Predict the structure.
Amino acid sequence: MPADKLLEAASQRGAPRVGPDIDGWFLPKDAGAIFAAGEQAHVPLLVGWNSAEGGAGAIFRNEEPTADNLEKAIRRIYGDHADEVLKAYAVDADDSPEQVATDLASDQFIAFGTWKWFDLQRRTGGRPVYRYWFSRPRPAMAPPGHQGPAKGAVHSAEIEYALGNLSGNKVYAWTLDDYTVSDNMESYFANFIKTGNPNGSGLPRWPANGLATPAKVMRLDVRCQAQPARHDDRYEVLEKLPPRR
């Protein structure tokens, strides 16, 4: 079948989702089982996610972002397991309903899966694991867009910072702070590529993760700072739930 026909078929509503191909050679079995058994490459890992990988609208749909509507949405999504999720994703003085919904949408999309990769590698990989949380929102759009700055770091927003490509993107009104973030990320990532360790001269220390101490995460922003991992209890709750259909 020609490639254009395959792409057209895959784009249709209801098209089956296609996962990794367990071919018995490159991928001999499910990746999760490989990591759980410690059969992956025993190399350092640098992994993380952004502060707004998903949007609160994915949880609230067309409802107002209130605590009551957040509870209704979680009960709709998780059914019999809603009480467990509500306890883990509670609204408190630090996080608004909109922020909690953003966190949940992000976790559903990519953060939980990335955390699982992080957790398995530090348990069975035998090498240092460096974890980040990228929280720098893109700035306002340059004219003629005039859109204000984002509320968080959306999915894929970190790429142009890490690769030093800000100047090539004329859509956003980059500031000196943005270039500071980019310079630091480039240095961290280049160090890791060269040595398996992101640390280097002039950079805030990025601690490695093992099992002997609580998880640490490097917050990548204008001020890079290592801090205790927040809300990992949420992932432990999600891990125990049956897969969502």
Observations:
- The domain at 45-240 is CATH 3.40.50.1820 (Rossmann fold).
